[in-house]
Specification:
This protein is of the alpha+beta class and 100 residues long. The protein is built from two helices and seven strands; from the N terminus they run βββαβββαβ. The chain has a single domain, classed as Beta Barrel (Elongation Factor Tu (Ef-tu), domain 3). The protein is 17% helix and 42% strand.
């Protein structure tokens, strides 16, 4: 992570997109998303993408968050490797840390 990165921590429940082979995500809290978007929107790439580093449990990885205009929040995708390693289940909340 870059030394000037801003750290955000939150607890939320993962969910799966309803499409075929739907991806898994955690949604950032709306108030946090609003703060991030107002401060960093100029750094967004296509489709509201912001580069980030995420950490759940003992796993830390480089990724990105995407702004979802329908949900009015940023979404963090959860790769299968991370879900498996950290035993992430859509019925349980996860503590998440991101650096942007």
């Amino acid at each position: 992570m870059k030394s000037t990165a801003i750290q955000y921590e939150f607890v939320t429940r993962p969910w799966q997109y309803s499409g075929p082979n739907g991806w898994y995500f955690v949604s950032l809290p709306k108030s946090m998303s609003k703060e991030i978007r107002s401060a960093l929107r100029s750094e967004e790439e296509g489709w509201g993408r912001l580069k980030a580093t995420a950490k759940i449990g003992n796993s830390q990885w480089k990724t990105a968050i995407w702004f979802d205009t329908k949900m009015n929040t940023y979404l963090l995708p959860l790769k299968a490797e991370i879900r498996k390693k950290e035993k992430i289940d859509i019925t349980k909340d996860v503590e998440t840390i991101i650096w942007i």
